[in-house]
## 1
Amino acid sequence: MNIFYRLTNRLFVNITNACPCDCIFCIRNLTDGMNENESLWLEREPTLDEIKAAFNARLDFCEIEEIVFCGFGEPMQRAEDVIALTRHFKATQPNKKIRLNTNGLVRLINPAFDISQLAEMDSVSISLNADTAEEYDRVTRPCFGKAAYTEMLNFAAEVKNYTNVTLSIVDVLTPQRTENCRKIAKELGVMFRLR
């Protein structure tokens, strides 16, 4: 079971395969892993203790600059575990930056989650992926319907009060849609990135 995988100097954390979206561009539809890594499909979700043990057993921390919650699922499906793991990672590897990659729908997934806990993160990257609710619904196909787009933007506006936020899009949009997304990020006062 591949809980962790490396890409250059980043260590990625793969703790769930569950996701409320079915994005038309999702890499899960194209491959079972990332680069030379083995399959990121989990036979089951690892426990907190299993994740901590696998983390503590690693010998490559001198080569790692950033730890990223990003696997073959939406990390915030396990929101409380993400916070517990972030605290563990920071306690054992205090010099490593920690980032969350998310679809920004945690309030729909887990309405009781306290977003202020994301202050534990060095940064949060949110998948914007569209410049309108209709286009977002078409390309991300969230199980929550059109309400998801507004919720994702509200999440970005709130979480920027606690940590650094970037809105990202897949580099397949038209130039006009890309520019519209850049403007949305600017209006929200957060960073923007093509991925």
Note: Strands lie at 4-7, 10-13, 66-69, 97-102, 123-127, 164-169, 191-194.
## 2
Amino acid sequence: MQPFQWQDRFNIGVDIVDQAHRRLFSIVQRIMELYVEKHENKFACVEGIKYFKAYALKHFAEEEAYMREIGYANYLLHKRLHDRMRRETLPALERELYASDFSTEAVQHFIGVCTGWLTGHIMIEDRAITGKTDAASAPICMDDELSVIRGIILHPLQEMFGPEVSFIGRFSGKDAILDAQYYQLIYRDRQGHALRFILIIGEPLLLRAASLMFGIDFYTRNEIVRFAMQEIAQNLIQRAAAVFGKEPDAYQLAGDRFLEPGEYEEAFAGHRHLYSLLFGVKQSCFAICIDQIPEDAVS
């Protein structure tokens, strides 16, 4: 597999932050070279993963210090995202690695999640620290929930994939999406209220998006691509979930999985979603459907 390519558009313009991001990418790439491709040198892989974790925690502390120094308004929300990564995601990945004796599948999961989280977090959250995500923003009516949801999804997408991403309108069953994949995310607040998001995207567009994000060509969907794109989707959808809560982090991810086509059709046949948003990317399209669902309906 070709190495992931660091791209200048990942820079946010703060040297200490940009240098750390480049270093984290290079550590992940080295782990992939040692274990996923060569299937050897387990000790080096173990040490690389330990180094990634230690360096990531150091980076979080430095970035948080910078945000406090400049008085960044969304510091607490940003810090909570770091806290979840260091207290939940990284420890869970580490447990999986040791439980599987560093199987290829577990290492691929680690690489995909870390690469996807870094990419999504940099483009969606870190660029906001310096106001870079505001440049392409169109006006959003804060009294119109649909306008807010559409805006907070569209603008980060344009940051990641370029201005060719556009909002088309309401998604319906008549809108054909070639070789559709259905990725479900469930978010829940402290009172048990649940939101269900379904990302409907064709595999060709998924691979094109991955190729653009990582600077290499993907012709088939492998496990690293799947985990990376899931993590990017979670970064994106978290912002939409925040619209429904009284606090920005009221809704937290409770579960996610890919649905079989039959599951999607059975669950949503004849059902009108709370929001069904259709987006275009050149000659392709994808959709995001949003529903408020009973707690006992979560699966």
Note: Residues 134-140 have pLDDT under 50 and may be disordered.
## 3
Amino acid sequence: MNDPTTSTPRLALATCAELPDLDESDQRLRETLSGLGVASEVVVWDDPTVDWGTYPTVLIRSTWDYTSRVRHFTEWTRRVERTSTLLNPADVVAWNIDKIYLRDLEQHGLPIVPTIWLDPERQLSARGIHTRFPAFGDFVIKPTVSAGSRDTGRYDASQTPSRALAITHAKNLLGVGRHVMVQRYLKQVDTVGETSLVYVDGEFSHAVRKGPVLEGPYRAEDTEGVLYREEEMASREASPAERELADRVIATLPTVIPQLEGSLLYARVDLIPDNDGSPLILEVELIEPSLFFEHAPGAVERFAQALVARFSERPA
């Protein structure tokens, strides 16, 4: 086997301080890269002692604490990109970091989960917030910048106490300057679940099922001190309708992100069914998504080979 310290460029796998050894899926990626002769180091993204210029390539992985420091994180991506190849690129991060990007996709004819957007600058009263909630059924409140279902709650429009909790949740988020999404909770999530479709170099790789995680109103203690809510995952074969929609999303990205050149190394499209079973876009994850290698035979090898190919394509 080639000596990985001399045969390939140095690669940084960016993580957060809470996961200094990466999560299990990305540990598997690192092992696979080593087998291909690619040396890598796990580096905490906000460590002030790191000289990012020593790494020709920086791969964003489990940087899951950035949502509380968005400006700091986006500045970091720009700084890294001045000296290294950042995957995915900083322009992609800037577009994808706020879920307002869903409006771009909707404007291009792609179906998203029906969403009402609340702007903190409007300084809505409790009544003003209340009138924007759905009149019936369950609904979800979450900030437009979040990850791992943090700061997210599920409410029942038919129950006055639940609506009151929803108003408080939304007011608290708006009060600290956060933009808010109000989305219908689509009941088939409880039975069918969510489908995450993973793409590598613009090509479909594999899909997984994510079980429901939202059971009630937001409570700070549910996610206090944790990076994300635990999810129930399993391998899944995407339906033709899910594949068609996710493929359309991937094909649309160069249009909504004009700076994007070529295919992204990785992308994940999260879909949920509407009441008729038709897929809708919940999220498009382009920054640091879990890629669920452990649920798809051959997936980690495909990803590693696509990454190595980018080393060979880099101009001398």
Note: The longest helix spans residues 240-256.
